[in-house]
Specification:
By secondary structure, this protein is an alpha/beta fold. The strands form 2 sheets. A 10-stranded mixed beta sheet has the order 2-1-3-12-11-4-5-10-8-9, sandwiched between helices. A two-stranded antiparallel sheet has the order 6-7. The structure holds adenosine-5'-triphosphate (ATP). Adenosine-5'-triphosphate binds next to loops.
């Protein structure tokens, strides 16, 4: 249970923001429920709605994403999403491609007390901005033999690709428009971060771009070319770029050098999990997906099926995704208070979940955060 004050309860302010909550699959609801309970206790004027999605909706309506779910998402100011392993997938597709949430922002910030595998994790504080809609995740795959009529000759193999043998292909699609908007988002974020009180004046904002432009001059070459063009409009922001494999090594060797990193979809997906590993657990990695008209928030990790039902999933990623959401809703002071409380729980170290070397349950961790909030 969340710790309650013994004094007379304060009046609950009228709800001014509506958040659609989709708890997700496997262990994800075990993180989401105590996080929503914790936020609810703070009386922030948020109304929670639960669109009917996933297995429950399928049982009740025959669809995992019925029209009522879409309407509830559309009516909400934002959505807080647990992770999905399938049944909630249609809702996620709508939030991503339906709402064109093109920038997936994945912060990677070390908190003292986190069980990082690095000897010197102090000062890690960067953000991966992953393009969220394009690249290999457009979901066009097929049999190589179907490409025979096109007789596509590999630039490297110099042979028709269908002649490689029985197998499959996937389409990697990168567009100028899709790249430009996500790169601009990254530069704007770098500027905004540089203005925050803890960073103001400490160092020049920087955007790092990581692509495989040497092997993929068409697709990744386009991404990098657009990034270099956009960079010209931001002379106050340092710009650098690396081949993505080199970047992966640098991210592990010198993570403190990074500020904002922008990448095509698949590299961003993979390397932001690796960034979670730098901190010590996928359970620490929050994310927010932003479009022009809508944003939703979800932990970067998957549904952790191997620990489902045990009540030990680390809710930090979900909680920090929720603080990103509160900032987006104009509730930045509350978001900061919660982040400071989470940092205190890590610094104290007595209520950490097993992925962080502790023995606390998910609920015990959230209770500790509630106590730290006072
Ligand atoms: P996806 O493909 O959806 O990203 P995945 O199968 O790659 O998912 P996860 O579900 O993220 O991977 O789990 C990978 C490992 O990390 C599992 O051992 C899981 O238990 C662990 N893990 C993920 N999230 C958490 C968390 N919040 N707390 C503790 N352990 C976690």
């Amino acid at each position: 249970m969340v710790a309650r004050s013994c004094s007379r309860p304060e009046p609950v302010p009228p709800a001014s923001k509506t958040v659609a909550v989709i708890e997700g699959d496997d262990a994800a609801p075990e993180a989401m429920r105590p996080v929503v309970a914790l936020l609810d206790e703070l009386r922030l004027g948020v109304r929670w709605t639960y669109p009917p999605v996933g297995a429950r909706a399928e049982r009740e309506t025959g669809s995992t994403f019925p029209p009522a779910a879409k309407a509830a998402i559309d009516a909400a100011d934002t959505t807080l999403f647990g992770s999905t392993s399938g049944k909630s997938g249609a809702a996620l597709s709508y939030l991503r491609w339906g709402k064109e949430t093109y920038a997936n922002v994945r912060p990677c910030r070390h908190m003292p007390g986190c069980a990082s595998p690095l000897a010197t994790p102090a000062g890690i504080d960067f953000v991966i901005v992953r393009e969220n809609l394009e690249d290999l995740y457009v979901g066009v795959e097929g049999a190589l033999r179907d490409l025979a009529p096109l007789n596509l000759i590999g630039r490297t193999t110099r042979r028709p690709v269908h002649a490689l043998g029985e197998g499959c292909y996937a389409v990697k699609a990168i567009t100028e428009r899709g790249t430009e908007r996500v790169v601009r988002f990254a530069f704007e974020l770098a500027r905004t971060r540089a203005q925050t009180p803890e960073r103001a004046g400490s160092r020049q904002p920087k955007v790092t771009c990581a692509t495989k432009h040497n092997m993929l001059p068409g697709t990744d070459g386009l991404f990098l070319g657009v990034a270099r063009e956009v960079a010209k409009a931001y002379p106050d922001v340092e710009f650098e770029f690396f081949i993505v494999d080199d970047f992966a090594c640098r991210m592990i060797r010198e993570p403190q050098r990074l500020d904002v990193v922008v990448m095509p979809n698949q590299y961003g997906d993979i390397l932001s999990d690796a960034a979670g590993g730098l901190l010590g657990s996928l359970g620490l990695a929050p994310s927010g997906c932003y479009g022009h008209d809508y944003a939703y928030f979800e932990p970067a990790h998957g549904t952790a099926p191997d620990i489902a039902g045990k009540g030990v999933i680390n809710p930090t990623a979900t909680l920090l995704s929720a603080t990103m959401m509160l900032a987006h809703l104009g509730l930045a002071p509350a978001a900061r208070r919660i982040e400071e409380a989470v940092a205190r729980v890590y610094a104290e170290g007595a209520n950490l979940t097993p992925d962080q070397g502790g023995t606390a349950t998910t609920q015990a961790f959230c209770d500790a955060v509630a106590r730290a909030l006072g």
